[in-house]
Amino acid sequence: MLVRGRVLSFKRRPQGAGDAAAYTYLEDGVVVIDAGRVTEVVDAGEIGRVGGKGVVLHDFSGKLILPGFIDTHIHFPQTQVIASYGEQLLEWLTRYTFPAESRYGDPAFAAAQARFFIDELLRNGTTTAVCYGSVHKGSAEALLAESERRGTAMFVGKTAMDRNAPPEVLDSARSAHDDTAALIAAWHGRGRQKVVITPRFAITSTPEQLEALGSLAEAHPDCLVQTHLSENLEEIATVRRLFPERADYLDVYDHYGLVGPNSLMGHAIHLTPREVRRMSESGAVAVFCPTSNLFIGSGLFDYKGLEGGPHPVRLALATDVGGGTSYSMLATAAEAYKVMQLRGQKLSAIEAFHLMTRGNAEALGEPDLGRIAPGAHADLVVLDSTATPAMAHRLAAGNGDIEEELFVLMTLGSERNVCEVFIGGRPQGLQQTAG
Ligand code: GUN
Ligand code: ZN
């Protein structure tokens, strides 16, 4: 099977705007796909060689073909929490989030929500996401089953929380361990699905629960761990009260063996110098969630300080829906740019698109995701940069440079720019259903 269009893929992390050696860009390219994977990426001049009788061609000439976007932090049970008014983190959790998540104990409800959730990700060009379920094991199962049905690669955790929340959304140290272990046994590495060890955050886990999950992480070194870290000042003060014997917030997770190269630390805004050093040394990933950080009023992530400081920290980008306000990685990149503007930092379009694709794949340790190159999974997004009148009008005054186009795309873009998505080489038919 062939997909023709303008093909963009990253070879490495760009150093900043204009670093054209970091990516490959074919003005008229063809992605050759076999058995769900990319086998070749060639210039359209070679279409005669790679095509021929019986080879299906999806012709998106003029459109941009990118690796499907990867969202490294999103909450599956918060699709009806998004856009909830007026609170900062701890009140927002109590008032909106815990009640919404309590409904996911109902398997039929969870299954219906999983269909909506994956539809919405695909509509936005996101083909892989790292997801928090609710506290209920069944919520993770519903999402994993739906993802398997679609053929997407999803990373899903049952959220563990055994204190400081209403009883309907609490588990125990033992049940969190056993439910997560059962999920791993049933689902981790089944097809394209993976299970993530998911303590919600230090406030809602007892030391016993963190210890149980730390031992699970030790037993499953190929599982990612995800949690929240230093998002909000009141949260940090609470963690200090709950764990007075620990050096700082990161040290709580570290003490229980939850900090390492497989760890995705959501937010990581208000870090101390010691925490930055330890993040760097451990290889843990700081996950930047700009729409959430602005919407919940949490603070301004220090992207360049973490990326390029004396103790460089691995970075990823994510929506954090429902604290985040958009499922679109394009809109997320736009807000990342604005957060960085407020800190006097610059986020070039190619750095942003690298992050949404290959950069985020590397944060997950998944070299076969996030790029369009031989051997990679054929998860693709096809984008029309001129999908809206305002974007077409803006680009009509552009200089035709791909980096300028990408910047317009991230600044003004949304799901309206997504023409089609391919999952393991299979078109999802978004064009027919769009409207
Ligand atoms: N910290 C603990 N739980 C959550 C959550 O659901 N969303 C966000 N943004 N932060 C959290
Ligand atoms: Zn979150």
Give the SSE map:
Layout: E1 2-10, E2 23-34, E3 37-43, H1 47-50, E4 57-67, E5 69-75, H2 89-102, H3 107-123, E6 126-132, H4 137-150, E7 153-157, E8 159-160, H5 173-187, E9 194-195, E10 198-199, H6 207-219, E11 225-229, H7 233-242, H8 249-255, E12 263-267, H9 273-282, E13 285-288, H10 290-295, H11 303-308, E14 314-317, H12 329-342, H13 349-363, E15 380-383, H14 389-396, H15 402-412, E16 418-423, E17 426-427, H16 430-433
Parallel strand pairs: 1-4, 5-6, 6-7, 7-9, 8-10, 11-12, 12-13, 13-14
Antiparallel strand pairs: 1-2, 2-3, 4-15, 15-16, 16-17
Protein name: Guanine deaminase
Keywords: Hydrolase, Metal-binding, Zinc
Pathway: Purine metabolism; guanine degradation; xanthine from guanine: step 1/1
Keywords:
alpha/beta, 16 helices, TIM Barrel, binds zinc ion, 17 strands, Urease, subunit C, domain 1, binds guanine, 4-stranded parallel β-sheet
What does this structure look like?
This protein is of the alpha/beta class and 435 residues long. The protein folds into 2 domains: 2-68 and 370-427, Urease, subunit C, domain 1 (Roll), CATH 2.30.40; 69-327, Metal-dependent hydrolases (TIM Barrel), CATH 3.20.20.140. The chain has 16 helices and 17 strands. A hairpin with a 2-residue loop joins strand 2 (23-34) and strand 3. Helix 3 crosses helix 4 (137-150). The longest helix has 17 residues, at 107-123. The radius of gyration is 21 Å and the shape is globular. The relative contact order is 0.15. The protein binds guanine and zinc ion (ZN). Pfam families: Amidohydro_1 (PF01979).
